[in-house]
Design goal:
The protein has 14 helices and 11 strands. It is α/β, with parallel strands linked by helices. β3, α6 and β4 form a beta-alpha-beta unit. It starts with 9 loop residues before the first helix and ends in a 9-residue tail after the last strand.
């Protein structure tokens, strides 16, 4: 596949701001001033991600909750991922799917995919995220597109988390029913990125960085961003993720923007990677800062986090939660005996029904779908 270049200055702007971000330079006064403002500047956002701001978590949480209720009411959006293949051509040292890891590989055929989709649809969910390992050989765009056509039969909202592709491929996937694209940059530090991604197309930092913009140019309705917190300096990665999303929102104001906040989790065969420890308090700080900087953005909290943390953060700042998750291949039906191995270990193994009821018990409104397609 030829890796398409697009004319965009967003990557240079993000990297420049990231490199000049000195989070230890912010004072208590900077934090207090940021918390007084209705809309945050870039510097305000940086201040709220700084170590000093950890002392203002209560104030940040109160304001984040106010913003969450103002822009999202009491809604909590629910979805689940479906992994259809775990073949991968990349060698990413932190990932269970990487091409050098000796795991059980599998790829579902279309009959198996449809059985999985039917089973998931029985839970009442109306949004699904289709995932593959990053292998064009085993999961080409046509295979993914056909899977998404099947997903559209059972779900009103379909997303993909796959390897980055060119604009025309995003246009094709959109024609197959895909609404949004999720891409994790993993880390925005290009030097660290090179050390973590040793083989495959994923080595090309700029091509991955520009994926969300190509997706929007390819008619996608929404895009999601995320860094894998803990791979590098998590404050700089958290800032870069938010600033990247902010710049694309300004350039494409019609687009729906989402942020994910995953932390490193254990993977099969215990691959070793140097990591920065990100505590729950620091993750809480990051999510509240995102809410205040990007008040209209969806914030997704993954099953990498434990149930107590997830239950609390959706009351304060996050707006979207995954449920009934398994990161293996073919895990929802009788085909589960044939599944491939998981990408990483999850921490919240509750069913859709359990999370649905928990959301209701907190006087929040679980939302399966809020998008209506008008027929021609």
């Amino acid at each position: 596949m030829d890796l398409e270049n697009i004319s965009s200055d967003i990557m240079d702007r993000v990297i420049s701001e990231m490199n000049s971000y000195d989070y230890n330079s912010f004072t208590d006064e900077d934090i207090k001033e940021a918390l007084k403002k209705e809309y945050l500047s870039i510097k305000d956002f940086q201040a709220l991600l700084s170590p000093k701001a950890i002392n203002y978590l209560e104030e940040m949480a109160m304001k984040a909750k106010e913003y969450r209720e103002r822009y999202f009411g009491n809604s909590v959006y629910m979805f689940t991922p479906l992994y259809i293949s775990n073949y991968c051509d990349n060698y990413c040292v932190y990932c269970g799917f990487n091409s050098h890891n000796k795991i059980k590989r599998a790829r579902l055929d279309f009959e198996q995919i449809e059985v999985e989709l039917k089973e998931i649809a029985k839970t009442g969910l109306e949004e699904i995220l289709i995932l593959t390992g990053e292998s064009e050989r085993y999961s080409n765009v046509k295979y993914i597109g056909e899977a998404c056509k099947l997903a559209r039969k059972y779900f009103n909202n379909v997303g993909v988390e796959i390897y980055p592709v060119n604009i025309k491929d995003y246009e094709y996937l959109n024609s197959c029913g895909v609404d949004y694209v999720t891409i994790f940059q993993e880390t925005y530090n290009n030097e660290k990125y090179k050390k973590l991604h040793l083989e495959g197309h994923k080595k090309v930092f700029s091509y991955r960085f520009n994926s969300q913009e190509r997706a929007l140019m390819g008619a996608m309705r929404g895009v999601a961003f995320g860094a894998l917190l803990g791979l590098d300096d998590f404050r700089k990665d958290a800032f870069s993720t938010g600033y990247h999303a902010y710049l694309l929102q300004k350039k494409y104001p019609h687009s729906e923007i989402s942020i994910s906040c995953p932390r490193l989790r254990p993977v099969i065969n215990n691959l070793k990677v140097e990591k920065e420890i990100v505590t729950e308090r620091e993750l809480f700080q990051i999510i509240c800062a995102y809410r205040l900087f990007l008040p209209f953005a969806n914030i997704t909290i993954s099953t990498r986090e434990n149930p107590i943390f997830r239950d609390n953060i959706i009351k304060i700042a996050a707006t979207k939660i995954s449920a009934g998750v398994d990161t293996g291949i073919g895990a929802h039906t009788k085909y589960s005996t044939k599944k491939g191995d998981e990408q990483f270990e999850i921490a919240d193994k509750r069913t859709v029904a359990q999370i649905f009821e928990k959301i209701k018990s907190e006087e929040l409104q679980p939302v399966m779908n809020d998008y209506i397609y008008l027929k021609d």
